[in-house]
Write a structure and sequence with these properties.
The chain is about 30% helix and about 20% strand. With about 350 residues, the protein is of the alpha/beta class. It folds into two domains: about 220 residues, P-loop containing nucleotide triphosphate hydrolases (Rossmann fold, 3-Layer(aba) Sandwich), CATH 3.40.50; about 80 residues, no CATH class. Helix 4 crosses helix 5, helix 5 crosses helix 6 and helix 6 runs parallel beside helix 7.
């Protein structure tokens, strides 16, 4: 008998067949998302990967309501994001926070980081029917605690963004997101503008906060090594569509889509063999005029006639031949037909 405890948690985030288009003067609209569906469970860490221009950042903006969907729906916690009116957005979407790629652009240079965090605390409390004066000492205390929690020193609340390093500014942006008591954080390339040591520190911070507080995390990145160390599940995007999704083990140890394999082959591996990563050949086509059939077929070494005429659906395919890795969801005719060899990435 299946008990309530055995049932999987209802998804916190649902993205259902979302299409996002950007108009272009004199040209066909650029379809940045071409029918994307995704679910994220409470507390789950999902990594979204792909080349620049694949639609990762547009997905982040669609989820948070910053990029209105042309069609489809985004639902967070049972509320349709696109249907939330502007005057109600702060109250209903505070549990959904976003950390942007460039903290210089997301932090106000004219205000201390403490004042910016206090502003979020006031908005959070107002949404819960609690009114506080701007000089309430509890505001400063919460700002100090949030900044200490993300690894910034005592007194950081009194400093301005330009007084911090890039990694510290991103930590301050994360602290600001945390004080809203979020259920989910969308992190859009949050470490790409940082040096290598800061990248690892910020990525580990996000992972630890997610685990400690049960915060769902959608971590968008082009760095597969970071995603592999961070995520529970990986979503691979190409030209506005999801082409493969599965657990980290499935994607990294038994990738089924030729594009996923090409991405993994391009990652440097410090194994001492002297082997070099293999660059992915060709250029991403114009999203305003995608190729017919499978969107990856002009760059795919395994493409067959069917790939050039019919677009494959995202379906479950057989796992690796040893049977120790379960199947992932893949949009590939060759993988669907079982003709993809298990040679790895």
């Amino acid at each position: 008998m299946t008990t309530t405890a055995d049932r999987p948690a209802a998804p916190l985030l649902r993205v259902d067949d979302v299409v996002v288009e950007y108009p272009r003067k004199g040209l066909a609209p650029m379809r940045a998302l071409a029918g994307v569906s995704l679910q994220v469970a409470p507390g789950e860490i999902v990594g979204v990967v792909g080349e620049s221009g694949c639609g990762k950042s547009t997905l982040a903006r669609a989820v948070t309501g910053l990029a209105p969907a042309h069609s489809g729906a985004v639902t967070f916690g049972g509320t349709e994001v696109g249907a939330v009116r502007r005057r109600r957005r702060a109250a209903e979407l505070l549990p959904l926070q976003m950390v942007f790629q460039d903290p210089n652009a997301s932090l106000n240079p004219r205000r201390t980081v403490g004042a910016q965090i206090e502003e979020v605390v006031v908005a959070r409390d107002r949404a819960q029917g609690v009114r506080r004066g701007r000089r309430d000492p509890e505001l400063a205390r919460e700002a100090d605690e949030a900044l200490l929690r993300v690894g910034l020193p005592q007194g950081a609340a009194k400093k301005y963004p330009h007084e911090f390093s890039g990694g510290q500014r991103q930590r301050a942006a994360i602290a600001r997101a945390l004080v809203s008591r979020p259920e989910m954080i969308i992190a859009d390339e949050p470490v790409s503008a940082l040096d290598a040591s800061a990248q690892a520190a910020v990525a580990n911070l996000l992972r630890d906060l997610s685990r400690q507080d049960g915060i769902a995390l959608v971590f968008i990145s082009h760095d597969l090594a970071v995603v592999g160390a961070l995520a529970d599940r990986v979503v691979v995007m190409y030209l506005g569509r999801i082409v493969e999704t599965g657990t980290v083990e499935q994607i990294f140890n038994a990738p089924r889509h030729p594009y996923t394999r090409a991405l993994l082959a391009a990652v440097p591996v410090p194994d001492g063999t002297g082997s070099r990563p293999q660059a992915l050949t060709g250029e991403i086509p114009d999203p305003g005029s995608p190729p017919p059939g499978c969107r990856f077929h002009p760059r795919c070494p395994l493409a067959v006639d069917r790939c050039r005429t019919a677009e494959p659906a995202l379906l479950e395919t057989p796992g690796n031949t040893a049977g120790d890795i379960p199947p992932a969801l893949v949009a590939c005719w060759v993988a669907h037909d079982g003709e993809l060899t298990d040679t790895g990435a």
